[in-house]
Design a protein that fits this description.
With 193 residues, the chain is mostly beta strands. It contains 1 helix and 10 strands, in the order H-E-E-E-E-E-E-E-E-E-E. Helices cover 10% and strands 58% of the residues. Strands 1-2-3-4-5-8-9-10 form an 8-stranded antiparallel beta barrel. A two-stranded antiparallel sheet has the order 6-7. Strand 6 and strand 7 form a beta hairpin.
Length: 193
């Protein structure tokens, strides 16, 4: 019983120390609209979702770092001009799932608003598009992007909108065509601590 009380007291004091230092974390969820450039895809945004968590480390009143970890999933339609190497597979729609790790710089002109900018690395966790008898994936396993956006801070609630532009070619099937991502990211977060 004494050990439980001591551990609870230590955890309580540790969480208060972290909070005093300006560290918070929470959960987030929202919608995504993804577009892949390249003649193999329709030139339109496809809807998806994201779900995960965030942390915020306040450096001072104006600046902070916000690392995140979230999963995103999007289904999109391929174009009629899909590369001939895919002819033996029905690829009208593909589904992409990524584990995303952005590290954002928060610039706060006021307590309620934050401008965000930073890199995001996405790790491909699943893809319904495979070629050459599933021996080679059509998408590279990682996607590096630049993120810009704005976040509204309302007590424990965070409302955000972001634009992400892919900086790397994610086509791993052929070198003849480049596939780059663009994502509109809208969501809500809830600060837990």
């Amino acid at each position: 019983m004494k050990k439980t009380i001591i551990i609870a007291a230590l955890l309580f004091s540790f969480s208060n120390t972290i909070k005093a230092q300006g560290f918070t974390f929470g959960i987030k969820a929202g919608a995504e609209m993804l577009k892949l450039s390249g003649k193999s895809f329709d030139e339109e945004f496809a809807f998806g979702y994201h779900l995960g968590g965030f942390a915020e480390i306040k450096l001072n009143k104006t600046f902070g770092i916000q690392p995140e970890l979230y999963y995103s999933s999007t289904s999109m339609k391929t174009a009629n001009t899909l590369d001939p190497i895919y002819t033996n597979v029905d690829l009208k729609y593909i589904k992409l799932g990524y584990i995303n790790i952005p590290i954002l710089l928060n610039i706060k002109p006021s307590k309620k608003f934050a401008f965000q900018i930073g890199p995001r690395y996405g790790i491909l966790s699943n893809s319904s598009l495979s070629v050459r008898q599933n021996a080679e994936n059509a998408f590279k396993s990682g996607d590096f992007a630049l993120v810009t956006g704005i976040q509204l801070n309302l007590s424990k609630i965070r409302v955000y909108g972001r634009y992400q532009i892919g900086l790397t070619d994610i086509n791993d099937a052929t070198s003849e065509e480049k596939w780059k991502s663009q994502t509109l990211h809208i969501g809500v977060g809830l600060r837990i601590l």
